[in-house]
Amino acid sequence: MDPKTVSECLGIQTDGHLTIGGCDTVRLAKEYGTPLYVMDETTIRNALRSFRTSMEQHYPNGFSVSFASKACSFKEMYRIVNEEQCTADVVSLGEMYTALQAGFPAEKLYFHGNNKTAYDLETAIGYGVGHYVVDNRSELLRLSRIAAMHQAQVKVLLRITPGIDAHTHDFVKTGQIDSKFGFTLETGEALQAVGEALSLPNLTLCGVHCHIGSQIFDEKPFAHAADVMLRFMAQIRDTYGVTLEELDLGGGFGIRYTDADEPLPYGEYMALVSDTLHKTAKELNYPMPRIVIEPGRSIVASAGITLYEIGHVKHIPGIRTYVNVDGGMADNPRYALYRADYTVIVANKADMAPTETVTIAGRCCESGDLIQEHTSLQPCEEGDILAVLATGAYNYSMASHYNRLPNPPVVMIRNGKARLVVKGESYKDLCRNDI
Ligand SMILES: *Cc1c(COP(=O)(O)O)cnc(C)c1O
């Protein structure tokens, strides 16, 4: 198997070792220990740039690429995103604080989330956060009250649930009517909320937002959502006489985890959405809004891998073979959560054919602590290094301390050189808040 089919930054060197960004993964595992997250900076920057280039081409009058930082949140990520002239989405004070600690400008942050507390909003106003993506009426009134108290004028987008089924895993769908997120379009709730937002003096309503789900492979739901949202903006104009200027279409672009995934080329998605928007704008005589997109997974997933050391290999004749690794659901809960697909490879035998069918098991005290089941792998034994590919998104950011496991370090590769960007936690770190 050619690991390049999963990510351009991967390769196999002459001794059969897997490489990332030109670095030998087996040496990285020795140097930094396992489990280890490794990310290729060039891949991240290229992804951000290609979205920007494409947006520039389709929306010359204004756009923003906003990295959905919940996919991967640590200081160095925000520095890279800022250097690449992108904005960032945050969904918590923790993400916000991390961004600000990295020198990310508060005015370039979009604050998301379906239950922002009064404390969250007060803190964000204190920081000078640029945009609030308001999810519901309670939040709208809460934000208005707090902004008035602080004599602040805050920019608001309303999150709309456009009633679109994105054909993806149930847990990562967010556009359909049955969703905890957003103001519902079909029931009239959304239009009414716009009227209310327009009447609140400390809020400046800039536009509307939708996000229909994640790991989506079909460009049609995106185009459909864009069309529905722009029609809604025209309806707002016709109802309230206000032409909103910003349309945020969210993220959700799929990536290749295994050979079975056929992600749509992002250029095609961008072209179809842009065509749809331009046609609809013309039909409705609506000026093209500033378009915002919020890619998360598609910026970082393919840039990352996780390295583990293989422990006991347990053959159960006629049943299956478990390959135990020194990490698992604590550093990558995605299989346990979603039955997520991954490609796995023995990093020190990457040039061998994957002739075995195995289940990769983690070290937590849960039978569900698996990374992948019935997956093909090179023959392996205790002491080998296992690489799980495309773990750059929703792995480090979803890590837990279950079984009191410290979070692994993150190493970033640039120009063939590795540097630590997040230290691994120590046992002392684990106890630092215990009294
Ligand atoms: C999660 C999320 C995104 C990013 O989704 P990806 O699938 O990682 O691209 C964008 N916008 C919002 C509001 C989100 O919740």
Instruction: Tally the helices.
Output: 12
How many individual β-strands? 21
The number of domains: 2
User: Strand pairing plus helix content: what structural class?
Assistant: alpha/beta
CATH-scheme architecture of the largest domain: Alpha-Beta Barrel
CATH superfamily of the largest domain: Alanine racemase
CATH fold-level assignment of the largest domain? TIM Barrel
Characteristics of this structure?
TIM Barrel; alpha/beta; 9-stranded mixed beta sheet; globular; single chain; 2 domains; 31% helix; Lyase, Ornithine Decarboxylase, Chain A, domain 1; 435 residues
Overview of the molecule:
It is a single chain. The protein is α/β, with parallel strands linked by helices. It has two domains: 168 residues, Lyase, Ornithine Decarboxylase, Chain A, domain 1 (Beta Barrel); 184 residues, Alpha-Beta Barrel (TIM Barrel), CATH 3.20.20.10. It is built from twelve helices and 21 strands. The relative contact order is 0.16. The chain binds pyridoxal-5'-phosphate. The site of pyridoxal-5'-phosphate has 16 residues, from helix 10.
Chain-wise SSE layout:
Elements: E1 10-12, E2 18-20, E3 23-24, H1 25-32, E4 36-40, H2 41-58, E5 63-68, H3 75-83, E6 87-90, H4 93-101, E7 109-111, H5 118-127, E8 131-134, H6 137-149, E9 154-161, E10 183-184, H7 189-199, E11 203-209, H8 219-240, E12 246-248, H9 266-284, E13 290-293, H10 297-300, E14 304-316, E15 320-325, H11 334-338, E16 344-346, E17 356-361, E18 370-377, E19 385-389, E20 410-414, E21 417-422, H12 427-431
Parallel strand pairs: 4-20, 5-6, 5-13, 6-7, 7-8, 8-9, 9-10, 9-11, 11-12, 12-13, 15-17
Antiparallel strand pairs: 1-2, 2-3, 4-14, 14-15, 14-19, 16-19, 17-18, 20-21
Helix pairs in contact: 2-9, 5-6, 8-9
The structure holds pyridoxal-5'-phosphate.
